Amino acid sequence: MSILSHKEAQDAQMGVSCGQLLCLRLLFFSCCILHSAFLSACPPDWIQPPHYFGYASETGSFHYWRDVARVDFGNGLKIPLRFDFDSARDESSPYLCAGWRCLLFEAGVVQKAPTILEVTLLGGQKLYLVQDKTPSTIHSSPFTLKYASQDGHWRAERKGNMLEVVRDCGWAMKFQLSRSSMIKGQIASLTTDQGRTLV
């Protein structure tokens, strides 16, 4: 059995302490990276919106969802190729038969009231935005109107014939508006929370 000198014991203890400190620092650094990645990641909700009763929509029309596939855009971004049919839909799709719509290409925005916009997202979910009437924007040009969702997670701004809808975590969509007195348009681009833009 060897007996360590006082100096050797101190050196051994210091080595253990330095090793523990290094492990703690590595653990802290890893936690910071994971926490940062978690905060920056903001996965969208691609779940099919539910029906109100059977195949009935909120207005009582016949409504049907059909997922065909998931389109892989690389880097982990997969968007469902989703079709929906509504018996009350008057507009015809440029890609499908009457009543059908392909949300990947036909997600859109429509003005439901003078100060309310209805945005149909790529997954089919509906988002309602209310015009911002604070003193700083109420006297601004009608071509720079601003909107926000009730929960504050979504904001939108209209500039000319383009409406940009932004989520507080970085996701954004731009809609090309038609030339009419009512706000109406279809999706022109999608930007992810990582800054990647799909046009």
Features:
199 residues, 3 helices, 22% helix, eight-stranded antiparallel β-barrel, 12 strands, alpha+beta
Protein architecture, described:
There is one protein chain. With 199 residues, the chain is α+β, with helices and mostly antiparallel strands. The chain contains three helices and twelve strands; from the N terminus they run αβββαβββαββββββ. The chain has helices at residues 6-40, 103-106, 135-138, and strands at residues 63-72, 78-86, 100-102, 108-113, 116-120, 126-131, 146-148, 154-159, 162-167, 172-177, 184-191, 197-198. The strands form two sheets. The chain has an eight-stranded antiparallel barrel with strand order 4-5-6-7-8-9-10-11. Strand 7 (146-148) and strand 8 (154-159) form a beta hairpin. Mean pLDDT is 78; it is low at 11-16 and 21-40.
Tell me briefly what this model is:
This protein is of the alpha+beta class and 199 residues long.
From the spread of the alpha carbons, the general shape counts as globular
Number of helices: 3
Kindly report the oligomeric state of this protein. single chain
**Strand arrangement across the biggest beta sheet:** 4-5-6-7-8-9-10-11
- Tell me the strand percentage band: 35-45%
Structural class: alpha+beta
Terminal Cα span: 74 Å
Instruction: List how many beta strands DSSP finds.
Output: 12
Query: Low-confidence stretches at least 5 residues in length (pLDDT < 50)?
Result: 11-16, 21-40
Largest sheet: 8 strands, antiparallel, barrel
Order of helices and strands: HEEEHEEEHEEEEEE
For the CA atoms, what is the radius of gyration? 26 Å
Mean pLDDT: 78
Percent of residues in helical segments?
Answer: 10-25%
